[in-house]
Structures are given as structure tokens and as C-alpha cells.
Design a protein that fits this description.
heterotrimer; A mainly alpha; B alpha+beta; C mainly alpha; A: mainly alpha; two-stranded antiparallel ribbon; 12 helices; B: OB fold (Dihydrolipoamide Acetyltransferase, E2P); 20 strands; about 35% strand; elongated
Chain lengths: ~290, ~350, ~270
């Protein structure tokens, strides 16, 4: 209901001017995003439906018919699920421990988690190559200690890829989870104890549910990043592990097949959005602001 | 600072809507030069909205706000030359006390010795003379409040706006500050608009009180008139501690059940509520008093006074107070006994039935 | 640890497991350091002899030096652009009260949500049309876009714990809006701004996937060159550059911690 009272028109003009200034402050960021993200990605969407200047769905049809593509989807999915599950199993105890430690010890542990987090991806990939090679550190140590006789094939395969990706993903899970845990009011668990809950019961029925927002945020983030991950499968997979992102890169760099590349990209993107949207409906997703040094 | 620098305020037709809820529903207000006016009301009544509009932080949907006859409703806050004290004090933590207080002077181009002198004067006025070099986080709540005050008056604004400035302080400090603020007002003579939900605070400090509810001014009067002659059930209930019983007026007297109650001045016939204030009720009737029969339900000793709950015929519970003086305590009736409540006709207050 | 659900004996298992996981995270990062000082061309651990030859090779190599310098330039420029732009956006979103604020905040995170490979390919394509591939400005713009979420999120968090009433008071005391923002608000969100700038810098410096597509030749960034080196032949020069980058990340984490310390009131 627009007011027609005293000074109403003038006041509205003032309000508009103020809003415009604030919008003006906000817009450069969105201009950059528009020009460098939305338009390029949108263009790719468009390309996925074009083949030799003709609108077509053959890029998408190929994904369903060709077995090579199906195996790529399978691989990507399996890899992501496995890494996500392992990250949760290994990451939850770490987050929990840090949340329970006194401030100084917690701070040290967090720093230890953050250092690899902020170390360049390629450095970490290289480190794993060094560690997992046939004559790498792990194999050398195992053989020196007489545990094995032949070097294990730890890298240039699925195993190496999983290990490498775990290394990247665990901090992504630990950080939002830890932030959530730190904010859990101890009074809840004290109340549970006073009402007669044993420690395991209090954990499963009170603490764990309270940690779910952070856990959900971390899990979603890890899974989504895994789906689109490029570097680790490329370098630690030895050509035996082909993920969606790798196929996209191949299609562009080797085959210049924009249609094929972009259609894969669209699929990846749509799946990402669906998962994100699905999770945000199920769980109250904390802003992804918890990542980045918490 | 003299009263001549203080400005009158005129508010007309102020409207502010949030969605379908009217925070302010057509408010008119006149504040005299140098007056201490309190906006009193429950939370959500619109009192803070009104203050924020005067300060320029919230825009109304329509209306006029004039200071000293000059239209201000479209003027940005930094040009309104007002002092504002927020509930949270909002001191600048990255500056010390003196820098906080000097800030408005710096903005106005006052510098050097003149600025230092005025900062000192302001700090002396709020009794913080030697704390200029302290950092904000070294101050207590009461001290911070004073700094906020000093900062708001150092540039001698014609109007001072205060949004529940004492609500974060403990009871004793709050009451002490109320008196100090009143003295400060007398010294400075500025026009002050004060927002609170505490009726006692309002009664203590104000020249006039505007009782606000649901975005409208229900009644605006001096504390005494508001207390003794409320114009509605809401006002009578909000100010003071009262019980209400329904009465009918006809032929110039009020009737409750079988009792006939004389009125201080003639009222039109109709349905009303009788306002029963604890300090006005007397133990025992009299020929020149109005009277109501009651049974004593409970007597509670409360230190400075004794609270006596009585039950009227029909079940209504009414409270009265007796000051705890030796003779009166001994003469208190026993619980369960029947007594006659007395009420001076001059204290027989009626408000229209809602 | 005063109270939790893990009885003392199991607590040891918790420590052990968590300790192993943390070691799993940290050891690989540290392992490159001794390796970079090895005198051998073979990847062997522990190194049989130590030398600085790989560092000499690194600093002697024009390509590595150019790449490092390029990365530095890009990162600094990205920080210079992204920080004010992101800060302005965070401020505008905080005060704007737009109906679409929720959506806008989501959109700001888009660079993190869209798979990087997609972003990289898309930008590569558009840049190819515009001739922006292998240019400094192309790199800076792309990295700025990628850095914006970090900056905006960092400053939005800072604004949320800041009492806006201070800016209002400053304005009521006579400061025009801009002055109030500059003198009162900005100094107090100094740390979140610094933290955002730091994140922008490091995210640009380490950025590999987009750089892989849009930079090359004389405009190669450091990660781009590392990518090539890893793909083509593994030599311990990479260990040397990795060590330097590890030192960089340790410094970053330390700096981040410092921007957080005063804010924390334990």
C-alpha cells in the first residue's frame, strides 16, 4: 500500500537513492561474476546443444549410449562416494577431538589441519607421487622393514587416487564440522546426563544430531568437490582412472570437441546443483562460510 | 547551553508500515522547547520507531518532522544536529574516551585548545572528568553510558534523543542515573525525547509522557495527570499497579453490584471500569468515603510496606498497600476477616470500558 | 577434556586415530622439504646426500623465475582488485535489505559451487573469442572472480559481529555516510578485510585449473609450470619449488591466525 501522506513521494525518492547507492556497491562483484562465470558457463550450456551449427541432443545421447561414458560416470560416482564416506569416518573423530581439547592444543591441531589445506594442490599431488611410487617412500620403508617383498602398486591407479583425494577432502569436512561442534552448548549433553543418559546414549541421541548441520555441510561440499575434481585423478590415476572432469579436459584440449565437453560439463553442473539443493532441503545447511580458516 | 538553543519538535501524520503491520499509524506530536518528553510503551508499540525516524535512521512512509519549524524528515542524519544515545551506547572501541567525545567536534571543524576545553566540560558534566585517556573496554557499564551522553551533548545540540539508555544497568545504578539525567536536563535545558518501557522511570524523569501503543499515542500528559486521570484502560493499566472492576454510571453516580460510588466530577451514563490503585484504597470505610465490602485473602510483608490482597464479592482480587509503620502493622486485620474498603471520591477514577 | 562421551581408555583410541589422520594430512606436505635438499636426481627417501643444487637450478632457470614472477604479479593484482570490490559488495548486501539478498549471497558463492573444470573451459572459450588467453589482464580477471567469494564471506562475517549502531551514531554526530563508514566501520573490520585479502592472494597464487587453460608460454603461472613439470618429467626441482610453496602456506596460516587472535575472546 503506497502512502499518499505528507512528504510521501519525496521520502520514497530518498529511499530509492539510498538503495541505489547500496546496489551500486554490490554490482561490480556481480558484473564480474556475470561476465566471467555466468556468461561463459551459460555459453557452454548453449554449445552442448549445438553440433556443426545445428541444434541437437546427440551430445547427450552419446552419454547414454556409449559404454565409455557410462564407465566414466560410474568411476566418478564410485570415487566420490568412497572418498566422501572415508572422509566422514576419518574426519569426524578428528573434529570431535579438536572440539574437546583445551584452547592451546586445539589451536595447534587446527593449524596442523590448515597447513595442508592451504598448500598448493600440485605440491600435495607431487608429495603423494613421491610417497606412493614403486620406489617411493612408503614402499621403500615397507621393504626395508621386511613387511613386503615386492613394491605395492599404490599409485597410478584407483587406490592412489583415493588416497590423494582423501588428503584434499578431509580438511573440507573437518573445518565446518569443527565449527559446528565448537558451538554446541555443553548444557545439552549435561542435561541429557542429568536425565539419566549414559555417555554413548548422550552422544548418539544428543551430540551427534546437534553436529549434523556441520556434518551435512562438510559432506555435501566434499561430495560436490569430488565429483568435479581434476588434478588428483589426472596425476595419481595413471591414466587408469578417468573422471568426468578429465574427459571434459580431453574433449577440449585433445579433440576440440566443444559439444562433447560442454554437455559433460552441463551434466556435472546439474548434478551438483541437484545434490546441493537436495541436501539444503534435508538439512539446515550452514553457510559455507565456515571453510577458510574457520 | 541555554534554553534558547533548545528546539521545539513538531510531528505530523507519521506513518510507518512493515508489510501489513503499522508500526506507526498516523502520529502527531508537539514537543515544547526544552521539554523532557518520554515515549512510554510496551515493546512493539512503535516508540523506538518514532525515535529512529526523528533521528533520521528510519524513513517513515509519510509524515512531517520539524525541528524549530524546519522540515527535517528528508534531511540525512548527519545534518540534523541531534544528540543520540543508543541502548548499546555504541562507543567507538578503537578510540579512547576523549577521542570519542571529541569526534563530533572534529567533524564540525573545532580543534586544538577549544576542542579540548569543550571535551573536558562535557566530561565534567557527566562526572567523568579525569577519565579522558581511558580506553572504552576499561570502563564499567555506567561509565560507558556517561561517555555516550557526553559525546551526545558536547556539540550542544538543540535536541537530545535517548533510546532506553539505562536498561542495561542494574537497579540501583539505574535509579541513580535517572536523577542525574534529570539534573543534567535542568542544567542544559535541551529538548529531550526519551524512550522507555519502564513506567516508573518515565514518571520520575519527564515533564510530559506520551503513552504509545500499537503505533498510536494513547495519551500525552504530565506524569501526574496520566497517573491520576488516565483516559483509557490501557493507560491506567500500563502506568501504576491497578485492579479493574466493571461499573455502570447512571444519574451521576457509579454502581457496582449493590454499592453506590460517588464520583469526583459528572460522567456520562454508560459502562466503565473503576481503577483501583493499591495506595488509594483504605482499610475501613467512612461516611464521606466510597466503600466496598471485601474479605482479606492474604497479607504479605514486603519490607517498606505490607501488601494486602482482598477478595470482593464475585471473586475479583484487589490489592492494597499499607506503609509499614508500627501502629498500622498492629492494626492489620486477620486473613479471612471481612472488612470494608474505603475510597475517597476524589480518588475514584473511571476509564471507559473497552 | 572434562566431560565427553568417551571413557578414558577409548579416549586413547580417539587420540591415536585422530593423531594418525592428522599425521596423514601433515606428513606428505612436510616430506617435500628434505627431498628438495637431496643431491640425487632419483626420488629417494631419506636422501643419501644433501645439496642445494635443485634450488640453484630453480633460481637459475629463467622459466621458473618468470613463472614465479608472473604468479606474484597476478596474485597481487587480484588482491588489489578483489578486496575493494568484495568489501563493497559485502557492505552493500549487509545494509541493502534487498528482497533478493539471500539469492545474491548464494550467487556470490557460485565460483565455489560451479565445478572448476567447467569454469575453466568456459572462460577459455570466451577468452579465445576475445583474445584474452595468455594475457595478464585475462588472468587477473579470472582469478578475481574466483577470489570474490572468499573476500565477501570473510567481510560479511566481520560485519555480522560488528555493531552497526556505531556507524549510525557517527552519522548522528555529524559524519556524512562515507566518512562514518571510512573512519568508524572500516577500521573495525580491518581484520576480516585483511583475512579476505590474504585468502584472495593465496587462492590466486595456487590456482591451477583455470590457469592451465588460459595461461601458457611466457604468461605461464607457477602452478601452470608445475603442472607441466609433473606431467612431463618428475625431477626434484619440483621438490624445491614445492618446499617454497609449503613455506608460503605455513606463513599464510600463521598470518590468518593472527588476524583471528584479537577477535577471539576465550
Amino acid at each position: 500500500m503506497i502512502s499518499a501522506g505528507l512528504n510521501a513521494a519525496g521520502i520514497r525518492a530518498d529511499e530509492l537513492r539510498e538503495r541505489s547507492i547500496l546496489a551500486g556497491l554490490t554490482s561490480p562483484s556481480f558484473v564480474i561474476l556475470g561476465l566471467l562465470l555466468f556468461i561463459p558457463v551459460g555459453w557452454l550450456f548453449w554449445l552442448s546443444f549445438i553440433e556443426q551449427d545445428v541444434f541437437t541432443l546427440e551430445n547427450y545421447a552419446r552419454m547414454v549410449t556409449e559404454p565409455a561414458y557410462r564407465s566414466i560416470f560410474m568411476t566418478t560416482f564410485q570415487l566420490s562416494v568412497l572418498v566422501t564416506v572415508l572422509s566422514v569416518l576419518l574426519g569426524y573423530p578428528v573434529a570431535y577431538m579438536i572440539a574437546m581439547l583445551p584452547p592451546r592444543a586445539a589451536s595447534i591441531c587446527l593449524t596442523l589441519v590448515l597447513i595442508p589445506f592451504w598448500t598448493a594442490l600440485l605440491v600435495r599431488t607431487y608429495a603423494w607421487l613421491v610417497l606412493l611410487q614403486r620406489r617411493g617412500v612408503v614402499n621403500t620403508l615397507l621393504m626395508d622393514w621386511g613387511i613386503i617383498e615386492e613394491p605395492l602398486q599404490l599409485v597410478h591407479n584407483f587406490t592412489g587416487t583415493v588416497i590423494g583425494m582423501l588428503h584434499i577432502m578431509i580438511p573440507f569436512l573437518v573445518l565446518p564440522l569443527y565449527a559446528n561442534m565448537r558451538a554446541i552448548d555443553r548444557d545439552y549433553t549435561r542435561a541429557a546426563a542429568s536425565l539419566g543418559a549414559s555417555p554413548p546414549t548422550a552422544f548418539w541421541k544428543v551430540y551427534l544430531p546437534l553436529s549434523i548441520p556441520g556434518l551435512a555441510a562438510g559432506t555435501v561440499m566434499v561430495f560436490i568437490i569430488c565429483l568435479g575434481f581434476y588434478i588428483t585423478p589426472q596425476f595419481l590415476g595413471g591414466g587408469r582412472v578417468t573422471t568426468l572432469s578429465m574427459k571434459i579436459q580431453q574433449n577440449v584440449a585433445t579433440y576440440f570437441n566443444w559439444g562433447a565437453a560442454s554437455s559433460l560439463g552441463v551434466v556435472l553442473f546439474v548434478v551438483t546443483i541437484l545434490i546441493f539443493w537436495g541436501f539444503s532441503r534435508l538439512f539446515p545447511l550452514r553457510r559455507l562460510t565456515e571453510v577458510g580458516g574457520s | 547551553m541555554t534554553t534558547a538553543g533548545a528546539l521545539p519538535i513538531t510531528v505530523r501524520g507519521l506513518e510507518r508500515r512493515y508489510g501489513r503491520v503499522a508500526a506507526l499509524d498516523g502520529v502527531d506530536l508537539d514537543v515544547a522547547q526544552g521539554e523532557f518528553l518520554t515515549l512510554l510503551g510496551p515493546s512493539g508499540s512503535g516508540k523506538t520507531t518514532l525515535l529512529m525516524i526523528m533521528a533520521g535512521f528510519t524513513r517513515p512512509d509519510a509524515g512531517s518532522v520539524k525541528f524549530g519549524g524546519v522540515e527535517m524528515v528528508r534531511t540525512p542524519p548527519h545534518k540534523r544536529n541531534l544528540g543520540v544515545v543508543f541502548q548499546s551506547y555504541a562507543l567507538f572501541p578503537h578510540m579512547d574516551v576523549a577521542a570519542n567525545v571529541a569526534f563530533p567536534l572534529t567533524l564540525r571543524g573545532v580543534s586544538g585548545a577549544e576542542r579540548e576545553r569543550r571535551v573536558k566540560t562535557a566530561l565534567d558534566l557527566v562526572q567523568l572528568g579525569d577519565l579522558g585517556a581511558r580506553r572504552v573496554d576499561q570502563l564499567s557499564g555506567g561509565q560507558r553510558q556517561r561517555v555516550a551522553l557526553a559525546r551526545a551533548i558536547v556539540f550542544e545540540p538543540g535536541i537530545l534523543l535517548m533510546d532506553e539508555p539505562l536498561s542495561a544497568l542494574d537497579k540501583k545504578l539505574r535509579e541513580q542515573m535517572q536523577i542525574e539525567l534529570r539534573h543534567l536536563h535542568q542544567r542544559l535545558g535541551t529538548t529531550i525525547i526519551y524512550v522507555t518501557h519502564d513506567q516508573r522511570e518515565a514518571l520520575t524523569m519527564s515533564d510530559r509522557i506520551a503513552v504509545i501503543d500499537k503505533g498510536r499515542i494513547q495519551q500525552i500528559d504530565t506524569p501526574r495527570v496520566l497517573y491520576e486521570a488516565p483516559n483509557s484502560h490501557f493507560v491506567a493499566d500500563f502506568i501504576g499497579d491497578s485492579a479493574f472492576i466493571p461499573v455502570t454510571v447512571s444519574g451521576g453516580v457509579a454502581r457496582w453490584r449493590n454499592e453506590v460510588l460517588r464520583l469526583p466530577r459528572p460522567s456520562a451514563d454508560g459502562a466503565y471500569l473503576l481503577v483501583l490503585r493499591p495506595e488509594k484504597l483504605l482499610l475501613g470505610g467512612g461516611t464521606d468515603l466510597n466503600g466496598i465490602d471485601a474479605e482479606v485473602a492474604e497479607i504479605v510483608y514486603q519490607g517498606d510496606s505490607v501488601r494486602i490482597d482482598v477478595r470482593l464479592e464475585g471473586g475479583d482480587l484487589v490489592t492494597l498497600r499499607e506503609l509499614a509503620r508500627a501502629g498500622r502493622i498492629a492494626a492489620l486485620p486477620a486473613e479471612g476477616s471481612r472488612i470494608r474498603l474505603g475510597l475517597d471520591p476524589a480518588d475514584t477514577i473511571l476509564v471507559p470500558a473497552p | 577434556m572434562t566431560e565427553d562421551f568417551v571413557p578414558a581408555r577409548s579416549r586413547l583410541w580417539l587420540y591415536a586415530l585422530s593423531g594418525l589422520v592428522i599425521a596423514f594430512l601433515v606428513v606428505p606436505v612436510l616430506i617435500v622439504i628434505p627431498l628438495s635438499f637431496s643431491s640425487s636426481t632419483l626420488l629417494e627417501f631419506p636422501p643419501r646426500a644433501y645439496s642445494l643444487r635443485w634450488y640453484t637450478a630453480l633460481f637459475g632457470s629463467i622459466e621458473w623465475r618468470d613463472a614465479a614472477w608472473m604468479s606474484l604479479k597476478v596474485a597481487v593484482l587480484t588482491t588489489i582488485v578483489a578486496t575493494p570490490v568484495g568489501t563493497a559488495a559485502a557492505y552493500g548486501l549487509h545494509l541493502g535489505g534487498f528482497r533478493a539478498t539471500g539469492i545474491l549471497r548464494m550467487l556470490i558463492l557460485a565460483p565455489l559451487l560451479v565445478p572448476v573444470i567447467l569454469t575453466a573451459v568456459g572462460i577459455f572459450y570466451v577468452y579465445a573469442l576475445l583474445g584474452l588467453n595468455n594475457t595478464l589482464i585475462g588472468l587477473v580477471l579470472a582469478h578475481t572472480m574466483l577470489a570474490l567469494p572468499f573476500v565477501v564471506v570473510s567481510i560479511s562475517a566481520g560485519l555480522r559481529s560488528y555493531d552497526m549502531a556505531q556507524e549510525r551514531v557517527a552519522r548522528s554526530l555529524g559524519a556524512p555516510w562515507l566518512r562514518a563508514c571510512w573512519s568508524i566501520t572500516l577500521p573495525q573490520i580491518r581484520l576480516p578485510v585483511l583475512s579476505g585479502a590474504l585468502l584472495a592472494f593465496i587462492s590466486s597464487f595456487d590456482e591451477v585449473i583455470v590457469s592451465f587453460f588460459i595461461s601458457g608460454g611466457e604468461y605461464s603461472t607457477l602452478p601452470r609450470r608445475m603442472f607441466n613439470a609433473l606431467r612431463d618429467q618428475i625431477e626434484p626441482t619440483i621438490a624445491a619449488i614445492s618446499t617454497i610453496l609449503v613455506v608460503l602456506s605455513v606463513a599464510t596460516v600463521a598470518a590468518l591466525e593472527m588476524t583471528r587472535r584479537p577477535a577471539r575472546r576465550d
